[in-house]
Every structure is written in C-alpha cells, then in structure tokens.
Design goal:
This protein has about 325 residues and is α/β, with parallel strands linked by helices. The protein contains ten helices and 13 strands. The radius of gyration is 19 Å and the shape is globular.
Amino acid sequence: MPTLRFAIAAGPSLGIGHLRRMQVLAAAARAADLSVALHVGDAAGPRPADLIADAAWPPDLPEPVPAGSWDALPAADALIVDGAIFDAAQCRRWRRRTGCLVVIDDTGAAPRPADLLVNPGLAGGAIDYAAHPVTAVLRGPAHALVDARFFAVPAVAAESGRVVVAFGASDDGRVGGPVAEALLAAGLPAVDLVTSPLWPVNETVAGLVAAGAGRLVHHHGAEMAALLADAWLYCGAAGVTVGEALAAGRAVVATALVADQAPNIAVLKAAGLAAFAAVDPAAMAAAAVAERAWRRPRPALAPRPGGPARVIAGILARLAQDC
C-alpha cells in the first residue's frame, strides 16, 4: 500500500485553509486504500495536535504527526506539500529523497521543483507554469479540493438575506467585525460572523452582537458547509472558503486578505463577480445589496465535484511512471 505523506502549513498566524483542503485530499487517498500521514506546522517545523486543537479534525483521519524539523520527515512514496513557507530550496531537498514530490500551488509566483504540481484554486487555469521546473501539472475547477458536502448544500433564495462573513483562521474579528457591521447598516437582515477558533475573540465582537439586536450571530469557528446551508451569500476572504461557497452555489463578495489571494480576485473580477483588492466594508456591503437583487448564473470557474479523487489518480499515475 503506497504511503502519502503531507507537509501542511497551518496555524494561528497562517490560518487553516491549506489544512482543510489537505484533509479533503487525505480523505480521498484513504478512500483509495492509501496510507496517509499528516504533518502540520509553521516555519518552526511540524507541530503536535495542540497546534490545531480547536480546529475541526475529521475523525476518520490520523492526527498530525510531530517531527524534529521539516527536513526530518520520514520517507514516503509521495510527499504532498501545501504552503508558501516551503520554498524552492526546501522542495529540492525533499525531492532528492522522496519517490514523488507533489507541490500544491496557488499563485505561480515562486517556481518550485516538483514531479507533480497541483493548483486547485479558482485561478489555476489562468496561470502559466511552462517555465516552472515541474514534470506535470493538474489545475483548474476539475481539480478543486473541496469537500463533497459543499456540493450537496441545498439552494437558498436570496430573499432569506442571510450572509456568512468569514476572514479565515487568522482573524479574531478585527477584519470581519466591521464588514458585518456594514452589512447590517446596509439593511441585510441577518449575518453570521465567523472568527478564528485559534485566537481569543476580539473585544469589539460582543458589542457588535449586542448592537445587532438578534440580527448578528457570532461563531467562534464554524462548520462552513452547515453554516452556508442557511445563507445565500458568502462575504469574506478570497481563499479556500470562497471556492467552497461557489461549490455550494452561493453568491460571493470576496476580498484579498493576503497576497496569495490576489489571483483569485483577478479571475473573480473577470467573471463579473464582486471582488476587491483590499478590505472595504462599505463597498462590500453595497456589493452584497446589489447581489441580492441579481439572480446570477453559476460561474464557470466554480469548483466541480470529484476534484480530490482526480488529484489522487494523478498522483498514482506519476508513481506508476516512477515520477
């Protein structure tokens, strides 16, 4: 049985978007009868489970495995790497002693050597990897790493007016709070504000909830598929969650919170969707009001079901060719 080892950048300062999508890929690997081992951490190295103790961890996946350093990861048939903290030098070291190195990339900005490069993001199809030192590339909506539960979320009419506001696991409410406040001021009837489960809640959030008089509900971490089931619009960062919202058929108003979300903003804008280069609560609220009045068709860039299984098939194909 081949073993797939995962090196995942995640934590309080990095968020857990990379972790969530690698959990989805690891689950697909286990469904294909493959063995998986997950290492989760930051620039200091892989950490034990307490790094993400307050984040959701699927019960059918093994807990993350600590190691002395990223260079000390045990050998595996394939090593799957997700995180900008893993640079070209690190990937070269891994590639020398790994059967197949798989690099998950979002931007194309920093070429890294790989036997297989996967860009599961909304902008995957728009990035030119011809000059990158990689053997094969998988990218675009067909290879999106989105949990199947998002595709099963039932439709919700815009008349419900409920909006989910989320800016990832690095936001304690300082970013999302003003956006939620602007949405309520613009007349949206109900807002779910999600803050990071990895940080204490910012002191301003309680005041916003009180001022909302029942219209604003705060969630200190959330199961996003369940939360989106009752909402018609996602308003937040243009990272992993915006792809999940599109998979669920929800309207989106997105903004770049960090630099690696800029490619998603570009393709969302090109598709005619509301997308901003920086957080602007008033403009995002106005865009949400406009979205409610427009029955927009599902965009072509939305993720498609089956992406995790396709990526696992691509990894197995590379292993069959000895990478």
